[in-house]
Amino acid sequence: MGNTGPAELLAIWEAGLAHHGPGRALLLHRAARPETGADELLSLPVGEREADLYALRRALFGERMQVRAECGACGEAMEFDLDTRDLTRDLTSDLAARPRGQDGGQDGPLRVEEGEWTVEFRLPTVADLEAAARAATEGGGDTGARTAAEAGGHGLSGADGDGFPGAGGPTGAGGPSDAGGGGAVGGERAAAGDGAVGGDHAAGGDHAMGGGGAAAGDHAMGRDHAMGGGGGVGGDHAMGGEDAMGGEAAVAGGDATGASTAAARARRALLARCVVSVHRSGQPVPADRLPAAELPEPVQRRLAEAAERADPAADVTLNVACPACGAATRAELDIASYLWAELDHWARDLLLDVHLLATAYGWSEPQILALSPLRRRYYLELCADG
Fold first, then answer.
1. What is the pTM of this model?
2. Most CB within 10 Å of its CB: which of 20, 65, 237, 282?
3. Comparing C-alpha atoms, which of 81, 87, 85 is closest to residue 207?
4. Which DSSP state fits 214?
């Protein structure tokens, strides 16, 4: 990670104001890998980007992520902490354990055999998700497009749009300002202490659980771990198969039918981009004779399973057991949106500090940003006392 001091972070935040989800995610990813060009970042598998963003979040705002969810069954507010050390360790382990492709390399095509069908495909990249988002908007509306590009995960789904983010699967996790409805995960302020910038305006000390909060347990990817009495963190991959990503929470703020249609367009676009070759009964099937959507559902389901094994870090899905009613609520933790929301809060608070100190002492912005968070805080306290 390069130089990500206050001035550099403010520049990233300012540039991100002119963008939406995909553009902001790319800016954050470039902060995590400043030596890597944008084209190379877009060509990475989704799981690598997610791992990089979790590592960036830990470096900037500390090890603890305070999140909240609303029970999809009874509406109970649930709050819990996630330890980014566990998440980062599990993501790194998942990336190292990725199965190798047919050519012996981790980036080679993967093969799925189901009945008379043999399909070779490559893992979706960040650029593939952005292309799917554009495809989803071609017929109007942006529900599926927004969630496809902003959220992690593969997004290639089975019948009727099940599994595409924003099409009836787990709702996307927001950042600190997003309380979310039915299943959406939101965050509190950044944990103070060990992050590079998290000590400025973050909530320090132990997080007080409110509203019947669920305490998070382990968070190893792809395995079941206790979270609030029986939840888990898993990796859901929607490259195919009915209910590949659940369907516990409704699409928020949009029409389910429109979202499903957008999801279907995005799914077709992703399959068309990622399928390398198709054979049926040993005979090659030309791409122009096989629309991606016509791959049999069992084949698409197998693609989803293979994608999950190959890139389990692409999705972090929380299964949170409601302490009030016991129902499980599933929600995707969208690290790009979460991290951007934290950065947005931090930047706006920091600019307010700059304004107050510049007014009181006549200092310039660079002079104020050069102060440590502790010294800025003491000067602000002196201003308040005066």
1. 0.74
2. 237
3. 81
4. P
